[in-house]
Amino acid sequence: MAKLDPAQQREFALEIVQTLRRNGHEALWAGGCVRDHLLGIVPQDYDVATSATPDEIRTLFGPRKTLTIGAAFGVVTVLGRKSSGPIEVATFRSDAQYSDGRHPDQVIFTSAEEDARRRDFTINGLFYDPVSEQVIDYVQGQADLAAGVIRAIGQPAERIHEDKLRMLRAVRFTATFDFQIEPSTLQAIQNSAHGITQVSAERIGMEMRRMLIDRNRARAVELLRQTELLKPLLPEVAGVDDLAWQQTLQVLAQIKPSDLSLPLAVLLHPARDRLTVQTVGRRMRWTNKEITRAEWLLEKIPDVQTSQTLPWPHLQRVLIHEGAGDLIAMAEAYAGKFNPNLVSCRKYLAMPPEVLNPTPLVNGADLIAHGLTPGPEFAPLLEQVRDAQLEGTITTCQEALDLVDRLQG
Ligand code: ATP
Ligand code: MG
């Protein structure tokens, strides 16, 4: 996807509102983008809410500039230039009945006020008029935004019961914005927490990923436990003792991850004997890359923690891995930067690449040229020669081939 320019996105969202207004419709910015704007955060995307029906929106912007995949729910995507990206334009609607705990059975086109009331939390129920630069607030969202409160719109128990995903959204917003959950909303979540399993694995995995990547991940995870969502989501982790749990929170807060794998490894670390990253990762629909790396971190952390007692070729293979920096950072978060095993890992890692990871003295082609027939024994043979090279017992290609002959002999 082309790079979006926040100023262009904003400009396009304003143009759409103006076009709708010129044609006699009400139109406002709505939801998350208003919240972010008021918090001083640059919105990822803008949503426009309007009195125009999907057909009217389509006619106005033209069939070539609109996508109507979501039209049944009142949502039309309006396509802009590459740098402004698409914008979702949704007809004011209320959601009639949820029989599956996740999706409305039907939507009814209504007023702006009712559209505000169908939204999940008061801070997400705000509209903004980008022309007059005024906030339109039917749900006391501004007060909650100022006070830092996540409060369900309407009856918390009902709203949580309708759509169980809201429980995870509440935790995510509370943690990422450093807010508090309003008590009756918290109570409603605790009462319905076991029902989180009705939400699709993809959505659960996506919410969890966003929480774990965010810098407030420790708070998010603590809230998952407090809301009783952790038990149905990660029963093995929910069962760890207090000491291990406190340490997990502290380490989660300390790490500076670049993707999901490191926080994931830390979260699963206290339950590592009771689960496999594969099972949890697949359940959450996390990517293979994320799962494999988290698995590697958990598998190798004992190595760096005991680095001074490991044979160099063994440790070297860990340290030349792409994930070595994260691995040492993780170990440091548990044992402290001054742990001698970790100090020496850092020292090795800082060595020039040709010292840390010298070019192998021989490769498969060299073995063939030396008269060997390719086969399954090649890999272990090359590995033994490599070990000898790293230990410094052989230093030339000839010595490597001599060793091959001895190992073969
Ligand atoms: P973010 O984009 O950071 O995840 P957001 O609040 O913008 O947060 P979106 O999924 O983009 O989330 O949804 C846009 C708006 O749609 C929300 O602000 C909210 O008003 C409404 N909304 C989204 N999901 C739900 C839901 N599950 N129940 C009720 N309203 C929702
Ligand atoms: Mg959004």
Q: How is the secondary structure organized here?
A:
Layout: H1 6-22, E1 27-30, H2 32-39, E2 47-50, H3 54-61, E3 66-67, E4 75-78, E5 87-91, E6 93-98, E7 104-109, H4 112-117, E8 126-129, E9 134-137, H5 141-147, E10 149-150, H6 156-162, H7 165-176, E11 180-181, H8 183-192, H9 201-213, H10 217-226, H11 230-233, H12 235-238, H13 242-254, H14 261-268, H15 277-283, H16 288-305, H17 312-319, H18 324-335, H19 340-349, H20 353-356, H21 364-369, H22 378-391, H23 397-408
Parallel strand pairs: 2-5, 10-11
Antiparallel strand pairs: 1-2, 1-8, 3-4, 4-5, 6-7, 8-9
Helix pairs in contact: 6-8, 7-9, 7-10, 10-13, 14-16, 15-16, 16-18, 17-22, 18-19, 22-23
The chain binds adenosine-5'-triphosphate and magnesium ion (MG).
